[in-house]
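Field log, afternoon session.

UNIT: design team B
ACTIVITY: writing a sequence onto a fixed backbone
BACKBONE:
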């Protein structure tokens, strides 16, 4: 299954653009070398329905955002999102789900609910 080409709309979570997230990769043939992997904007997408926002992103990007503390635990602090320059939030993370899978670039879906509170 090939990924379909999506429009290049930049998405950010708490000010961190998904296409700028850099995942460190070990280089097996050059142990002292450091390489970084990142995914372009068209590999992440978002959908809004009322007070709910779903962000589909490359799995490695989502893991890095959790590791860096950008993404809170489900039901934790609120975050502010940005989709195509439009601020959305504050939002609570309600669920983390698997998305499209093709063996090369698995997708994780982050489901947010817009909150009436302020970002913590």
């Amino acid at each position: 299954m090939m990924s379909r080409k999506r429009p290049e709309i930049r998405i950010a979570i708490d000010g961190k653009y998904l296409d700028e997230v850099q995942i460190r990769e070990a280089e097996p043939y050059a142990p002292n070398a450091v390489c970084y992997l990142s995914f372009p904007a068209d590999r992440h997408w978002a959908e809004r329905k009322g007070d709910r926002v779903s962000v589909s992103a490359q799995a490695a990007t989502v893991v890095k955002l959790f590791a860096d503390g950008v993404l809170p635990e489900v039901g934790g602090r609120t975050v502010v999102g940005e989709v195509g320059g439009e601020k959305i939030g504050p939002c609570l993370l309600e669920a983390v789900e698997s998305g499209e899978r093709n063996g090369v670039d698995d997708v994780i879906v982050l489901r947010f609910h817009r909150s009436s509170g302020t970002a913590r």
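LOG NOTE: The longest strand covers residues 86-98.
NEXT ACTIVITY: expression trials, pending approval
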